[in-house]
Design a protein that fits this description.
Layout (H helix, E strand, L loop, with lengths): L3 H10 L7 E4 L12 E2 L9 E2 L3 E4 L9 E9 L13 E5 L11 E4 L3 E4 L2 E4 L9 E2 L10 E3 L7 H9 L4 E4 L4 E7 L3 E2 L10 E2 L2 H11 L3 E8 L3 H14 L2 E5 L9 H9 L1 E6 L2 E2 L3 E7 L2 E6 L3 H19 L10 E5 L3 E2 L6 E11 L2 E6 L9 H5 L2 E5 L4 E2 L4 E6 L7
Parallel strand pairs: 5-6, 13-16, 13-17, 14-15, 17-21, 19-24, 22-25
Antiparallel strand pairs: 1-12, 2-11, 3-10, 4-6, 4-7, 5-9, 8-9, 18-20, 20-21, 22-28, 23-27, 24-25, 24-26, 26-28
Helix pairs in contact: 1-6, 3-6, 4-5
The structure holds adenosine monophosphate (AMP) and magnesium ion.
The site of adenosine monophosphate (AMP) has 18 residues, from loops.
């Protein structure tokens, strides 16, 4: 058996980063920047007020309360026309440019107005409530380094800088194929021996959730020619392909046979449970992940190999999920068998600790356990762990924190 780390390294080494492209900022959420972002503009672009109030000369407010003559009203989006002279003030709204002459803003709550005279009730310091030009970002500043994963906040900054396009590693198009003569997906009555295809839906959903573009390449029977043509056609318009089924030791497990023939494939028995068999290869430059067919195995195999490989192709510096430390709220038992076990658990955040509890039905065909769990507890070879033991946890979904 191949240790998990070796299998992951093998996959990651063959999942090279795709060439960078320029993409609209509107489509860049979750993508990784390929170049540095240098500010061509400053944020804010001009000095403006942080408060609704009055722009004044701070020296005028020294003897507060003082009365100042209101010379104009400045709304956000409008340029001041007049200079604020001694004994004068301009009424000003949040975000509006500071007029010439003024060096402070007094908030409206600290004033009273009668006709065109404002009474300033408190002295203000120079610069009070003024947001200078470049307060957040200066022209020429390095805003984001290459390798930044773009979140909502990053995209907002790019918009503030007037950038419509950004150099990123492109969102991957990943084809998904289910293989197996027993599979149907038409919702009809099952003939003897048939089962319904669930893997395509789970894998497509995992891909979508991880920010990839999933492409449904359909159901393919256990037939070498059909599998070959589905894979080869898929490589025409996908950056990577995920198959499920047909990689075990059975007589009709043709995926690995086809991959062996038309691609450069390594078939591994990985020292893990579930998801022991893995056929990983490339057809040309397109990585093919041949995942096992058992519904839980295919999901766990996606988590351990598919997701990291695809993230590496999309430029993520950290393709593997980082395990967090959880505490077993009950014994998580297993038997020594030379494998690392990935137990489906429910993780919950209680009093500052992530507690994990086993979910029932750990068989690799028992998909409801995947639906009930939000994490995998990593149980090294041995007898498992006791209540209170610290255990590595791969959080697949958020814990009970909205
Ligand atoms: P295989 O890896 O092809 O030997 O399949 C292992 C087990 O997973 C068998 O019981 C299959 O019927 C089942 N299986 C394979 N593919 C799927 C699928 N797409 N959806 C649900 N079960 C599947
Ligand atoms: Mg099969």
């Amino acid at each position: 058996m191949v240790p998990i780390e070796e299998a992951q390294t093998y996959v990651l080494e063959r999942c090279s980063r795709r060439a960078a492209i320029s993409t609209p900022v509107s489509e860049a959420l979750g993508l990784v920047t390929a170049t540095e972002v240098i500010a061509a503009e400053s944020i804010p672009p001009f000095a403006n007020t942080a408060m609704d109030g009055f722009a004044v000369r701070s020296s005028d407010s020294a003897g507060a309360p003082v009365e100042l003559h209101i010379v104009e009203t400045i709304a956000a989006g409008h340029n001041p026309k007049l200079t604020v002279g001694a004994g004068q003030a301009s009424r000003i709204m949040t975000g509006a440019p500071i007029p010439e002459g003024a060096d402070a803003v007094i908030m409206v709550e600290k004033t009273s107005v009668k006709d065109d005279v404002v009474t300033v009730q408190a002295a203000v310091e120079k610069g009070n409530h003024i947001r200078p030009a470049g307060d957040d970002v200066e022209i020429g500043e390095l805003v984001f380094s290459a390798g930044t994963v773009l979140t909502a906040g990053h995209l907002g900054v790019l918009c503030s800088l007037g950038m419509n396009e950004i150099d990123v590693y492109p969102r991957l198009r990943v084809g998904v194929i289910s293989t197996g003569d027993e599979l149907v997906d038409d919702g009809g009555v099952l003939a003897p021996g048939q089962i319904r295809d669930s893997n395509r839906r789970t894998l497509i959903s995992l891909l979508t959730g991880d920010g990839f573009i999933a492409i449904d390449l359909g159901l393919v029977p256990d037939d070498e020619a059909a599998i070959e043509s589905a894979l080869v056609n898929g490589t025409d318009h996908c950056d990577a392909i995920i198959t499920s089924g047909g990689v075990s030791m059975g007589d009709f497990d043709y995926v690995k046979a086809v991959l062996d023939r038309v691609g450069d494939m390594r078939w591994m028995q990985v020292a893990i449970k579930p998801a022991k068999p893995l056929a990983f290869g490339t057809i040309g430059h397109t990585p093919i992940f041949g995942l096992p067919g058992n519904p839980v195995s295919s999901m766990v195999s996606y988590e351990l190999f598919g997701r990291p490989g695809l993230r590496a192709m999309m430029g993520f510096a950290q393709p593997l999920r980082t395990p967090i430390k959880g505490v077993a709220a009950e014994p998580l038992l297993r038997r020594p068998d030379g494998k690392t076990h990935y137990a489906r658990v429910s993780a919950s955040y209680e009093d500052g600790t992530v507690l994990v509890r086993s979910v029932t039905g750990q068989g690799s065909h028992m998909l409801t356990s995947m639906a009930r769990s939000n994490a995998l507890a990593v149980l090294q070879n041995g007898d498992g762990c006791d209540t209170g033991d610290v255990v590595d946890v791969l959080l697949l979904d958020s814990v009970n924190i909205a």
